[in-house]
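Severity: low
Component: inverse-folding endpoint
Summary: output formatting inconsistent between runs
Steps to reproduce: submit the following structure tokens with default settings.
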């Protein structure tokens, strides 16, 4: 039987350590570049869709938005709400409102902006069609609706999701307090 022995020399140990360190650095570099790529993607994607929603004017004014999945907001015209329980199709019209908080405050707050937009016959209007819908309790005149969906070639917006804000929550007045004496 042959007896084989191996001794680790200082040079061999140093070579192994150097190789292990190089592999660790390469691994950190790969992970770092991957993270940097993810962050860059999120930043670029966030810039492209930096607004929470578009206005009706923005959506209707650009043909490039047709067929794309977008989020749009408007004031609900309560006189146009129609729900067919048999087909579960809900239709209503929204009117354009600004999406800039400063503009909304300058015009008297969201409640006032919604009210004024519905009174103005020159404001851009858009019909909303929502299939497989239930009649939401908050869908009423002067509610703010934020819809996700696609603008069809027929000029109607086909919603996949509708979020509503109740207009009674926009009162800027503080509630009157009564003191018990």
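Observed output (run 2 of 3):
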């Amino acid at each position: 039987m042959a007896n084989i022995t191996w001794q680790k020399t200082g040079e061999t140990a140093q070579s192994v350590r150097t190789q292990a360190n190089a592999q660790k650095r390469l691994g950190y570099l790969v992970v770092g570049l991957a993270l940097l790529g993810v962050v860059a993607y999120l930043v670029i994607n966030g810039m492209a869709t930096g607004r929470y929603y578009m206005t009706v004017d923005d959506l209707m004014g650009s043909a490039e938005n047709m067929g794309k999945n977008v989020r749009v907001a408007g004031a609900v015209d309560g006189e146009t709400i129609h729900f067919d329980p048999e087909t579960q199709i809900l239709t209503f019209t929204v009117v354009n409102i600004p999406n800039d908080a400063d503009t909304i405050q300058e015009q008297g707050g969201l409640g006032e902006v919604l009210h004024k937009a519905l009174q103005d016959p020159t404001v851009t209007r858009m019909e909303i069609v929502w299939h497989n819908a239930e009649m939401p309790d908050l869908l009423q005149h002067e509610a703010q609706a934020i819809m996700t969906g696609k603008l069809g070639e027929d000029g109607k917006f086909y919603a996949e999701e509708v979020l509503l804000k109740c207009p009674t929550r926009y009162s800027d007045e503080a509630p009157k307090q009564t003191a018990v004496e």
